[in-house]
Design a protein that fits this description.
single chain; cNMP-bd_dom_sf; four-stranded antiparallel β-sheet; RmlC-like_jellyroll; alpha+beta; cNMP-bd_dom; Crp/Fnr family transcriptional regulator
Amino acid sequence: MELKDYLKEIKSISEEKAQLISGYFKKETITKGTLLLQEGKISKKSYFLQSGIVRCYVIDLNGNEVTTRFFSAPDFLNDYLSYFKQKPSEENYEAITDCEAWGIDFKDMQYCFHNIPEFREWGRMLLTLNYVSINKKMLSFYKNTAQERYLELLKEHPEIIQQVPLHMIASYLGVTKYSLSRIRKETARKLP
């Protein structure tokens, strides 16, 4: 999906305004393994992910990487708190696959927010959708089993199941890789 189409899909924006806003973004090729943002650094760019998968992760108290979120195309990604408050990030953002993205720097983002009302409304909608996603994940840890969380991820983002290493998916779901292996076997037996 192209950036201007994504802008129009999230919040109704005219073709002309979508084209104008798209002009502030620069196309980037991001290679697998690239850290787009490192914990302790301030986010300088926001991205529209046109292709590929990016994960967020933290290092827990035992020194283990724990995946907190995946972004798969088409999606808009940034560390909202770090980017908009210009404070150090508490997470790492890593390209899991090669990615094509469109980046916008903080200065241009601010210009668009202050001068293009449609972009401001689009940004509000995007923040709302981001909140809903984070809240849904949090609630799923209290209300759903690990298998239900896996099935939901499989249904909503099969590309993550297909392209992301199992240990990253396991940490995202809050299970060991051995438990995930068992869940995958049980699920495969039940599927037609």
